User: Fold these one by one.
Assistant:
Number 1:
Amino acid sequence: MSGLKNVAANAKEQAEEVNQKAQELIVEINTMSDAVSKLKGFAGEGIRNVTNDVREANEEAQEAMKKVSEVKEQTGVDAKRIVALGEQIKLLQEKIKEAREKASRIRISMKSDDAGVCRRAFVSPAHLAPRNVFALRYRPLLNVPDSLLFLTKTKAKRTQESEFIAMELRERRIVVHWNIGSGTRMVTNTHTINYIAPGDRTA
């Protein structure tokens, strides 16, 4: 990156130098133009001398313009290199962010033995709890519509889909939906939840 900054600084310095030289040539040409106007009535030898000076100044001006063009071309090449480097840095930042997200999904805990010595332990997702228990007290009305009873979910990331567990009442049956990393699943309880009259309720 410092190399590109040095190249850009050198290009800027060359451009300023060429611009200053061009300004000096403009002043010199204006001065000679005034001299030509004054020499219109003089001898032809003096006019030829002024003409030669003007020709030399014109050649120097063309050389200066050539240098300006070369500096612009080099500056364009440097600009393309800077843009390409910026894109590579952006790609590297994305890869670092993705690696951090993947690393955050690895669960590591600190455990200690009887002697009080701590050690790091990796909690493998292959040994999770075999089941989850949810207890909901639910009493439907006489004409209850289908409705969502319970929902918990995680925020989706670029490298990981959103995980969720949801329970709903559909046609008076409990339906559970979940996705905890192995795809979306669904199970329906075949038991129908019927309306219980107030006189028949025990609780």
Number 2:
Amino acid sequence: MTNPPLEMAQNSDSSEPLPNEISSKNLPVSPVPDPQTFPAKNSYGLFYPGRDAIPSTLVKDDEAVKTAVNRMTPQLRTLLATKLLRLTANQGSSRLGVKAALELVSPQTVRLLMQQETRRAAWTPPTQASTQASTQSFSERQLPETAGITVTVGSRIQYQLTNYSDRPLYFIVLGLDAAGNAIALSPGKGTTSLEKTAIPPGENFTIPPTGIDWKLQTSGLVETHLVFSTARLTQAYQALGTVLRTDVRSIGLLPNLLEVVQGLLQDLHEASAPLLPRAEIPVDSYAMDVNAWATLSFMYQVV
């Protein structure tokens, strides 16, 4: 698949601005080594616009430019994939009825940390069960992804997904862990795994499933994108399946995030095609209808 430019189109009766670039103050900070302890004069790294170093891109050894480019190419591809994912965020315009809650899991309780839902769905979202909710009011719990949520290292978390629309919805979970590594939810082996990613109307789905712990091991900023679609995410899961081969759902490192995201965008483009006006769409563009997909994004700091 070719790599089209970062051009996307939403079909909606209301214009919603694309999400802004994340400010450097919300990004993980890797201290730049002191010159006295970092003697190399010919080494390279990647930095955010605020001049904070991107984790794991600085080295102490001298290196040639070509060596540095080859070393940092995987990080650059991951950053491009993450930018594409952020461009799909449409919480305020999607017509699908979906809700996602980030929960802190302990042996005795499940506490709600953050919750997001689509705002323009035709259906009324269900309320959070009182046994799982925190003591905050419903309005206070609807926090934006940059609201400064912090979680301690070693905590166990899960996402509770709810489909309150009138049709099955397929989904995929992609993002970055606190170390800046790309992560994904493994769907399992075989073509039947695509069926397992569907949430029936009015049903919930927990990630990771019961019996599989998602433990936060490293401090830093975590970014997670939950993408829902009215059609199967065939190409995304084909790219995902070549890396994560397992019989059970689990969270794993993903070295080819860009290929997965490119497949995902093509899946959403094809799912939207029957809903879009008859018009010639450039071959290097993705056209998406807000009735076909929803992306909910979460960010929180692990300390």
Number 3:
Amino acid sequence: MVIDLFSRKVVGWAMAPSMPAKLVCDALHMAVQQRRPGEGLIVHSDRGSQYASAQYQAKLASHGFICSMSRKGNCWDNAVA
């Protein structure tokens, strides 16, 4: 799920029985299509393997987005979700 922290709206989502990198890439794609953000957007997530994957990181880079990940073992960094 991708949440726009300014509007607090869900702008991208995807569902699957597991959590592969493709799942988060699909959610990000939906959010980009809906909002059309510019380069420099900060995309925050936890440290899950799907967010650290080369596929997801390449998708962020292709849009010029900045990856921000929570600190290890600190649930408060991602408290919005």
Number 4:
Amino acid sequence: MRNIRGFICSIKIVGNRKLDTSYYVRDKDIYSSRKLKINFEIFSLNSLCFPSGQKKYDPCAKFVRHANRNFKLHYAPYQELSIDESLIRTLCHFSITQYLPNKKHHRWVKFWLLCNAVSKYCLIFYSYKGAEVKTDSDGKNNVDLNELKYFRNNDVLFCAYPGKKSVKNLILLISTKSIDQNVTIIRKQHSREKHLTKPVIVYTSYGLYIDIIFVFYI
């Protein structure tokens, strides 16, 4: 069972390629390249998969479904839930690989995770396959800094918040227990006081503050 887990982790990171000189594990006791080659000769994991380029092609589908099924079986969610993103470095070249030129390692696989905001356990996750809807870039240039936009649908509150000039995309905050009000805070910078206006939803106790905050109180 330990070898199977190591095999799944290895093909997730390095893919089905010969990497004798650049194999990512240097400690042979953990999972050697020899074990990886032997397992490749035994297993054939892509015979029933959709070919690359098709709409249903998803190389992570099988173990993602298996993991989510076990999460649902063993974990009981709290009321406080958050959605966060996680990046896993990879040497693979497939359709869900994200190229991030600003990072030291350029190729990553992005996962969206529904997490328990109290215990930090993952409840469900799936791989990011790229944006399905293209946004209008012209509209972003008309957004002023600290201009807040609220939208409420029953108990769900949406807030679009451009926090910094360096951030090109709006930060989208979603909550089911928050009010559509702003709060003024005072920050000291170089012995000077700076007054900032931010939405109350920013200060939720269970947010994970990456690209999107999604807090439920069910």
